[in-house]
Write a structure and sequence with these properties.
binds magnesium ion, Rossmann fold, binds adenosine-5'-diphosphate, 8 helices, 10 strands
Length: about 260
């Protein structure tokens, strides 16, 4: 049987846990003067620890800016971001770098693997950069979880897009991050490979308690989340939770918003 919908039984209640990510009046203006573009107008949103959130909205609505501010890659113009209990504006660049390295994972649309390194070396890279020696058993287990144990000595260019993204996901998870940010992780993949990646993100949430925040254009991808938030012109204009998080309802809501 071909499954196009994720299982509906796995969602946990998003209450009673401290937020992994807390955005308060988050405002971001790119540039200055007449060139200034306000990408986020004042976002208030809390994301519970161990939940899966999809961020949707048209091109230019502020999704990437939101992810970058939330992950400490860009400084907000005003408002606050609290990530894993740390208010980011109080942190120095060095502290932000360490927070990103040790407590956050990233997955990008175009994988961002290092071409000259093997799959295993790519996955182990965040540990190496932190001066830690990868535990070979843990590395094997991770590679096996993403179905790449046999490909571990290959270079990224020898892998399919789906395999490369699964390697990138293993790399994002190798440090046991509290939050994984994924910007269109299935955008470059066919539906079957995309589904494999979404299942692995869902498993990270359900089995490891990881918090996942994923930008996507695809209602079928968003349906794997616990909550869908919709941005338009830098405003948070809609939220879907519980039984509303199905591909059909998400697609209908996006169409109603003209997205
Ligand atoms: P999305 O990811 O939803 O497509 P973005 O967050 O990339 O949206 O962009 C939101 C708005 O901010 C857009 O109008 C975009 O042109 C603008 N923007 C994003 N990054 C920059 C930047 N570095 N400098 C100037 N404008 C930017
Ligand atoms: Mg974007």
């Amino acid at each position: 049987m071909k499954t196009t919908q994720p299982p509906r039984t796995v969602h946990r209640p998003a209450t009673g846990r401290s937020p992994a990510l807390d955005l308060r009046s988050l405002q971001k203006t790119h540039g200055k003067g007449r060139q200034a573009v306000t990408a986020l107008h004042g976002i208030d949103h809390a994301i519970p620890s161990g939940s899966f959130t999809a961020v949707m909205g048209p091109s230019g609505s502020g999704k990437s800016t939101l992810l970058h501010c939330a992950a400490g890659l860009e400084r907000p113009t005003s408002g606050s971001v609290t990530l894993a209990g740390q208010e980011l504006s109080g942190l120095s660049e060095r502290q932000l770098t360490l927070l990103r390295r040790d407590r956050i994972g990233f997955v990008f649309q175009d994988f961002h693997l290092v071409p000259a390194l093997s799959v295993a070396a790519n996955v182990a890279l965040p540990l190496r950069l932190a001066g830690r020696r990868p535990d070979p058993h843990r590395l094997e287990e991770l590679l096996s979880n993403v179905g790449l144990l046999e490909k571990r000595h290959r270079r990224p260019a020898e892998l399919s897009g789906g395999q490369q993204q699964r390697a990138a996901l293993a790399r994002a998870l190798v440090t046991h991050p509290e939050v994984v940010f994924a910007d269109e992780p299935t955008g470059a993949l066919d539906r079957t490979s995309g589904r494999d990646v979404l299942k692995l993100l869902r498993d990270a949430v359900d089995d490891l308690g990881t918090t996942v925040v994923m930008v996507t254009h695809d209602p079928q991808a968003a349906a794997w989340a616990d909550e869908v938030v919709v941005l338009a012109d830098g405003w948070l204009v809609d939220r879907l939770t519980g039984p509303d998080v199905t591909a059909e309802t998400i697609a209908a809501r996006m169409a109603a918003l003209g997205v």
